[in-house]
């Protein structure tokens, strides 16, 4: 039990330290040109931002991981 | 309005393919497993002490058809979602449509 408590404390301390040092990169700002990108679609085909433009507004949302609530 | 919706995550393309199949997802999903797009948009959490700690944030970006950013919303909680009506309102109010 004592060892388990130590392990749990170590894990909790590590998690807190990670959160304390985590930072977010600067978001793009309204009015600027959106940074270009080339990414794979689910079938492996490369899609560029330019391929999406010209037809109408583009709504891009980001999420952490598929198959999770995020 | 003719808006396109694109979801981006740090998953691999085959993972997104399985996700699309399981959920019958109709809109485009893109894989940024190498984290090339997410940092450029400010949608990733990094940690200098742990280089492998690079997780996407939940965020919304609305571009007009020329590629100009019209709306940005970066969430601090990944389970915070905008409702479809809020996104539609943002498209209209931002002048992106």
Task: Describe the 3D structure.
The complex is a heterodimer of chains A (70) and B (97). By secondary structure, chain A is α+β, with helices and mostly antiparallel strands. Chain A is built from two helices and four strands. In chain A, strand 2 and strand 3 form a beta hairpin. Chain A is elongated and about 65 Å long. The mean pLDDT of chain A is 80. The mean pLDDT of chain B is 91. Chain B is globular. A two-stranded parallel sheet of chain B has the order 1-2. Chain B has a two-stranded antiparallel ribbon with strand order 3-4. In chain B, strands 5-6 form a two-stranded antiparallel sheet. In chain B, 23% of the residues lie in helices and 29% in strands. At the A-B interface, strand 1, strand 2, helix 2 and strand 4 of A face strand 1, helix 1, strand 2, strand 3 and strand 5 of B. Strand 4 of chain A pairs antiparallel with strand 5 of chain B.
- Helix residue percentage of chain A: 25-40%
Biggest interface goes to: A-B, 45 and 67 residues
Q: Estimate the global geometry of chain B from the Cα principal axes.
A: globular
Major sheet strand order of chain B: 1-2
Task: Estimate the mean pLDDT confidence of chain B.
Answer: 91
Spell out the helices and strands of chain B N to C: EHEEEEEH
């Amino acid at each position: 039990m004592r060892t388990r408590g130590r392990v749990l404390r170590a894990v909790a301390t590590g998690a807190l330290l990670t959160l304390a040092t985590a930072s977010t990169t600067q978001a793009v700002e309204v009015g600027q040109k959106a940074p270009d990108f080339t990414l794979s679609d689910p079938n492996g085909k490369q899609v560029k931002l330019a391929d999406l433009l010209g037809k109408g507004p583009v709504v891009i949302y980001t999420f952490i991981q598929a198959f999770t609530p995020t | 309005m003719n808006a396109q919706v694109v979801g981006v995550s740090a998953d691999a393309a085959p993972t997104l393919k399985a996700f699309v199949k399981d959920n019958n997802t109709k809109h485009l999903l893109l894989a940024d497993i190498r984290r090339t797009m997410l940092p450029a948009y400010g949608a990733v959490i990094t940690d200098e002490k742990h280089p492998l700690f690079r997780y996407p944030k939940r965020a919304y970006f609305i571009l007009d058809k020329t590629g100009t950013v019209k709306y940005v919303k970066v969430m601090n909680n990944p389970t915070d979602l905008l409702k479809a009506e809020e996104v539609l309102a943002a498209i209209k109010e931002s002048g992106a449509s």
